[in-house]
Amino acid sequence: MARMKMAGDALANDPFAAAFAAQDVQGRSLWIDAWHRLLKNRAAVASGITMFLMILAVVFGPMLSPWAPDFTDWDHTASPPSLVNGHWFGTDAVGRDILVRTLEGGRISLLVGLVATLVSLVIGVSYGSVAGYYGGVTDRMMMRIVDIIYALPFMFFVILLMVVFGRHIILIFVAIGAVNWLDMARIVRGQTLGLKNTEFVEAAQACGVSDKAIIVRHIVPNLLGVVMVYVTLTIPHVILVESFLSFLGLGVQEPMSSWGALVNDGAQDMESSPWTLIFPATFLAATLYCFNYIGDGMRDALDPKDRV
Amino acid sequence: MFLLEVKNLQVSFATPEGEVHAVNGIDFAVSAGETLAIVGESGSGKSQLVMAIMGLLAQNGRASGQALFKGEDLLQKTPRELNKVRGSQIAMIFQDPMTSLNPYLTVEQQMTEVVMYHQKLGRREALEHAVEMLRAVRIPDAEERIHQYPHEYSGGMRQRVMIAMSLLCEPDLLIADEPTTALDVTVQAQITNLIGELRKKTRMAMILITHDLAVVAGISDRILVMYAGQMVESGTVEDIFYRAHHPYTRGLLASVPRLDRDASDDLQTIPGNPPNLLALPGGCCFRDRCAQAQEICSQPPPMWRDERGHRSRCVLEMPDGRVENDPAGEAGSAAEESAP
Amino acid sequence: MTEPVLRVQDLAVYFSSRTGSLFRREQRVLRAVDGISFDLNPGETLGIVGESGSGKSTLARAILGLLSPNRGRVLWMGEDLTRLEAEPMRQKRKELQIVFQDPVASLNPRMTAGTIIAEPLWTFYPQMESLQVEERTRGMMKMVGLLPNQINRYPHEFSGGQCQRIGIARSLVLNPKLLICDEPVSALDVSIQAQIINLLRDLQKKLGLALIFVAHDLSIVRHISDRVMVMYMGRSMEVAEKTALYRRPLHPYSRALMKSVLIPDPVRAREVKQEVWLKGDMPSPFSPPRGCIFHSRCPYQVPRCQADVPALRRMENGNWVACHRAEELDLSI
What we know:
The structure holds three protein chains of three kinds. Chain A is built from twelve helices and no strands. By secondary structure, chain A is mostly helical. The two termini of chain A are 36 Å apart. Chain B folds into two domains: 1-89 and 171-274 and 310-315, Rossmann fold (3-Layer(aba) Sandwich), CATH 3.40.50; 102-168, no CATH class. In chain B, a hairpin with a 2-residue loop joins strand 4 (61-69) and strand 5. The model of chain B is unreliable at 329-340 (pLDDT under 50). By secondary structure, chain B is of the alpha/beta class. In chain B, 31% of the residues lie in helices and 24% in strands. Chain C is an alpha/beta fold. Chain C has one domain (6-95, 176-321): Rossmann fold, CATH 3.40.50. Chain C contains eleven helices and twelve strands. Chain C has helices at residues 56-63, 86-92, 113-124, 130-143, 160-172, 190-207, 218-222, 242-247, 252-260, 266-270, 303-307, and strands spanning 6-19, 26-40, 45-49, 71-76, 79-80, 96-99, 178-182, 210-215, 227-232, 235-241, 313-314, 320-321. The longest helix of chain C has 18 residues, at 190-207. Chain C is globular. Chains B and C meet through helix 7, helix 8, helix 9, helix 10 and helix 11 of B and helix 5, helix 6, helix 7, helix 9 and helix 10 of C.
């Protein structure tokens, strides 16, 4: 009959002493569950592998190429792709190898994508979670600032920066980052508004946990899912914005290049030497597709509908 | 002939951690006008059992066995055929009335939709019929209230609306999955009374699913107790409440707080936690938590049965009973050693 | 006679919402808690029983300062918590803790059982060595009946009852003197409810806690309370010693609650019930009835009940009742 009493007592009996001494059991966090679900999504996995190969290519490719990006091969100007003369993607009007330029351009494009997104992530999450958690006047003021910056015409802002500071690669990061964090802040604020009413946040408040600790430990980890999905969809957006700026001539300066600049150049020679447009455009498009598939896959992985 | 006859029903789910057998071979039958209560803790499989019968399993669920409704196997029917049966011949109400009702439609719209689909009535007749049903479940001012939205009703009233909706097509069988669990005590008593009245007034058969034995004491004819996907005991209401045999059933009865018993002692409990369906102990599924478990329980226990149809799956001897099937072949010897 | 550790005096919490169009703004006031007073002695358990809309959860939060009351005082060890500034109140949280109703929702799904239980220690004792913190965490897990080797598991890997044990461990890790349990077993199966109630009872005896146990069912509260307060629409209907209440309730609502408890006995449950112990449904909280707030549902109401609000007054046997007809009615079960 002793075993009919509460479980705690039962556990104190000798047969269970072994259970006490047992090894700690490994927990299975929700992230790991989501990761496994993501791995089942073939499109996402294929995209992930493709992006990985792409990154390897742009990082190491230019080092392995026999041509330097700014080397002008006067014997083979504007020549179509050929395996014979070593210009696998052909050359542009002044004889620069398109393959190495595309890879080198990829460095800039991907770098802009990743760095600008990272900046917007950090600023957006901090700003949005603070505004959402404190609410009231703080929230309203912070979000009005967001609204005001949102209303600024982006092109105007970029041109202003260019005029004041000259054309510098860093400016691209600044310009794009300064605008992108706004969306992130709004999304994070929305999520925070929902999370701050959950019972576990209330429990933390009842335990006297400080506001800062609540935001860092309870709010942010629980919105990272949504944030991560948004990040994977922001990266292609940022790359496109940079491409657009370069296309307009406001982006990177020669001899540095990005996919956008290459597309710009290629577009001008589209009829005579289409390969100067096709290759950079394909790389750009492939990257955008891949990030979108990964983003979709993450959204599905983090929001399972078929759980029992 | 039985209205619903379930034979060897199995339900399993494919999960990343492995195959989960939520229901592991259940047999039961319900006759017209009879009320069967299925009782068990969360995870016992009681809800999945009826979801399988109704064809409402999640995507990764598989059901096998037979569920003969008026002689036809529901498990073999296509979704379209099931749609004809659901709502008109078999109705189901769920635990949380707030999520069962569409918050964007008025009660009138939701009720008349059901009637018009199944009985091909015109709008006006459907409305009259619906109002009549609301009156039958004691909703005050039914003609006006039917035009309101679900959020304008209280929790108890919403559950009544659900019951009314399920009665619209005069089903032969009503399945209620934890109908009173989310409700206040006084409301629970009212809904339980209402169900009791329905029993008397209609020839409808009912299956009530719950984890609380007290809820079904006054409103069922027979009870089936489930644990870890298996039936551990079944019998008439009197059999279960006054002559409970299986240690789990006894534990469930003992853990219900009663106003007529002494309050100074600790509440009786069943120690331990509901079982992990991925790692069931071999033999008797309950032995990890049973105060009377012995060596022999590592073998599958025999099924006892007495003349009244009271069945129990345990090595302990049942008075007036004989062994119906004995997977381990050890029933006789075990009976001598142990006394309940 | 020892001093009560907690004195709640005329506590009121109102919520207001504005409705209506741009030109016709109306203010609607919801009196969630409308003048509740009670004392709690050291080591005592008070059960607070009420249905949804009674204000019991709001009351629990107001006592702990998670909500600001509109009126009244909460005296903890003589100090008025409602007058404290943010930081001193935060320090008081070491002594006042709460266990929530939904065991799973009250745990951060991204934190392990160990970190959930350890968090209060990090908050108030940041200098504590991590080894000490871990030891104390494992000790708490054992105390509430969990295996310490589960310390790295996440809430979704535990059952409902086990999650509630984690919540209890978290609330006790700082050695509080008052524990408010807000419907801690309502979301659990009946068989597990008994385990948790026994656990709370044992812990209370072992740790000498003052306990407030909020529930919606009189039968649950019976095993753990010394005294019981019955609430309806933000007001106190009856406060009584447990045995006195259960033997003979003095308020019609208390009686209705008791009568509503389902009897796990088929023969008795089937007995035809002719009497009506509760009429109609709960009125809208935005327009509460005048006079006695319960009169619209009371089978014993007389004209006086619609006009005068009955005060909570003390009867001969020690019960406090808010009913005009308390002396004349015989409400034995």
